[in-house]
Amino acid sequence: MTRIIKAFSFINLCLALVSCVISVKVNAETNAVDKRIANVDSAHSELHRAKVSLDKIVVKNEAELYAAVSQANANSRTAIVIRRGTYLLHSTLNVTGDYITIRSADNAPSSVVLKGPGMIKMPRVFNLIRVSGKYFTLSGLTAEGSPNHIIQIAGESDADFTTIKNCRLQNAREQIVKVSSNAQQNVSSDLGRIEDCVFAYTAGVGPQYYIGGIDMHGGKQWLIRNNQFFGIASPEKRVAEHAIHLWNSSANNVVTNNLIINSDRGIGFGLQGLKNEAGVIMNNMIVHADLTHPSADVGIVLEESPNTIVKNNKVVLLHSYPNAIEYRFTSTKNVKIVANQVNKKIRRRNGGHAALSENSAIENDQTFINKSAKKLPADLFEVFKARRK
């Protein structure tokens, strides 16, 4: 009997030690994620503490809007406040000055619409807004209908510290937001922030395969959070770019608390030969339930993205593609994929390396799918429902 009691005591001690080791490991991983997010948050907070006084120009028509942008470029440090209405854009709003804000007077996306000519092919580049200055802010409006991008942030001009918040950006012939860079990757757009925005194709599908939500080349320490993406999907048998794609020397970015509905690919870090370094993908919800999309693909993918953390995301895909999360290529290493809930495989491809822990399988939960889609604006939720019939 004494031996039995001692044996049980030894087993309990072993279990306690294992539990302790697991707890320490989980806490260490949590602390690592928290530290990365805190580093990005701290950098952004430092920027926003430096308050800059802005001159204000109020505009009520297209001519005044273009004139205000020209004046702001000459003077910098200007807030352009747009009164309620629809503004038809005949050329790109080129923002070259520093500390320029464009916002609606009501701070409501439905109150102001910047409307381009539509998702048509044109002989020249026509982005609705192009930014090459630092500390640009776009807030509280809708921008739609671009032959190219709704917004291009020119990293090749070192356009740092961009903020896009509380906007609805939709219906671009190419990627909705493009963060570009130069070929040498020695200058980029860094420390940007995209928050509380809606990215959408209002038909529930794009006009061609060469589309995306946020397409970022070379950006570093961006914070992309609390956004919604809908219908970033190709009508062709050729996959669209991701709802969020950070690549081509991007590094140390945080993508968190985003909702991605019915997009061919959800979140991608890196691409073969065009790597991403580090960063966090955390607390995102990715749902695909539109079986009419011909090229639906993976929920989250790391491609040449070392030192990256993928944690606490939920991925439910109803299409036939077999994988929810992928980590690809031999340079993808020192990666942690932790506590994600998925209804398909988490898969290693092309020699990728990752430490997997606490991930779990979930069913094709229709209640979760509908509940997630209901978070979309009402008109997009109606499109979501109609395309499932």
Automatic annotation (TrEMBL):
Gene3D superfamilies the UniProt entry points to: Single-stranded right-handed beta-helix, Pectin lyase-like
Signal sequence, start to end: 1-28
Ranges where the Right handed beta helix domain occurs: 151-341
Chain segments annotated as transmembrane: none
Keywords recorded for this protein, A-Z: Signal
Name of the molecule in the record: Right handed beta helix domain-containing protein
